[in-house]
Amino acid sequence: MASKVIHAFYDDDDVLMHAVKKVKAAKHHIEEIYCPFPVHGLDKAMGLAPTRLAITSFLYGCVGLVIAIAMMNYIMIEDWPQDIGGKPSFSFIENMPAFIPIMFELTVFFAAHLMVITFFLRSRLWPFKEAENPDVRTTDDHFLMEIEIHGNEQDLMDLLLDTGAVEINITEK
Amino acid sequence: MYTFSNRLKIASFILMAVGVLGIGIGFMTAPSTVEDAKAMVASHNDGHGDAHVVAQDHDASHYEHLLHQLQNKPWAALYVAALFFMMIALGTLAFYAIQRAAQAGWSPLLFRVMEGISAYLVPGGIIVFIILVLSVAHLNHLFVWMDPEVVANDALIQAKSGYLNGPFFLIRAAIFLAGWILYREYSRKLSLAQDESNDDSNFKLNFRISAGFLVFYLITESIMSWDWIMSVDPHWFSTLFGWYIFAGMFVTGITVIAMVTIYLKSKGYLKDVNNSHIHDLAKFMFGISIFWAYLWFSQFMLIWYANIPEEVTYFVTRIADYKVPFLGMLVLNFVFPLLLLMNSDFKRINWFVIMTGIVILVGHYMNVYVAIMPATVGDQWSIGIPEISSVLFFSGLFIFVVFRSLTKAPLQPKRNPFIEESKHFHY
Known about the structure:
The complex is a heterodimer. Chain A is 50% helix and 14% strand. Chain A is α+β, with helices and mostly antiparallel strands. Chain A has two domains: 4-36 and 141-172, CATH 3.30.70.260; 53-122, no CATH class. Helix content of chain B is 75%, strand content 0%. Classes of the chains: A alpha+beta, B mainly alpha. Chain A: It holds the Pfam family ActD.
């Protein structure tokens, strides 16, 4: 369904932050904001739900740790028992100090890589993906606030101009 | 202005009084003859229902050794607690100097809290120094290398005696403590003077002396850790010991800053301190706990892997005789802070930070305990009256000195150039 949206452009992140607060205070729903760089505190000002990426990262880290333990136990203890550091105990727990760096590294590896992949999937980003920016200037020096219009075009225009928007366009989406 | 509440003051006096009493009992019940020592160990064994027969083939020197260990016990308990609380103040002072040298914008609201905690460095440092003087005067046997009889039969200690000898040891200790206390007093003076001044000259001078102090501190702290802690095992050495001890004192210092801040806030002071400040302190508690574990493990793994007898003996004795505190402190100092403070939201919940802080403090007391005890009391360790009383006494003294110092100046610096940034700090 095609809907009309308003695109307000800003050329300063502080002005943008104040604008977001005003628009939120006027009880309008901000669809999206396109920025050339991350703006600190913007997510809180927009009222976005906190990310759950950290939880997935923790779980991926646990997976990495378990895989490291299983892997080292299989490789170094069961399949081909190794005499580690001249201490032929052939027990996982007694040789564990030697495995801790690997356990740590795989925990970090899994947490980091799977978190990034999750982030890409969740943000619908993949190689050769067409950019969703409605205007190329948002990759340079402009911020763009997108608000859906529900027959309140003039009100919104006035409000946005009042917040210091440098340009306002209305487009079909 | 903060007023020292009577309840807290009385509590600190009670802690000190009970502590002194317990320390006295500890010294009084220490055996004075070989026969007493034998009897103590025998009754101890009976108490556990062990079928140990006190072996006849044990020669006199063994019992002599046992006597020395039992006589050392109250001294070692006193020393561990004295060091632990002194290092809280010293770690706080280091954290404070870093904030000053980094010109941090978030922390100036907490400067008076840090200055209050580092006030304990004066009495705490002097008490540690007195214990060291008494050791050099042979009133106790905490440091085996101070015993001329031992040195006469020990080529390794003889080779080190150019460094490990009583007078030089005390001169070093005096220089370290004098330097730390001098910086603490001078920086505090400048900090208070900045409140009344009309330019930033005190602030700038404080920045410069703090940067200079950090250089002095990192060198002296490292040597201090060899002198006061590592040298109880004079044959053993570890090149990252200084860092390892530093991480311990740093995390305990930060933990106490967080706890005192939360206490003062709960009493209605420090109104401008918000939960982002607590969050930052908790992040430091979390991060430095991991840093401590990293250093602990780096030291352990290299020695464990190489398995060189002269090095590995340090861990062999600890795992054989101190299994519970040695491995338990890893859980308290690493696993607990890691899991409890991992979640961002938990770092802002005051009671959560306090609970984790208590775990960290207990864990780091065990850290100092396991560093000192094996060389001084061997397998005769226990957490009994002397140990608990020493902790009670020093915690009472610590509370008294810290909170009395907090009453001396307004809790909020007035004219720190970064105070507005600190008030509006949010994450």
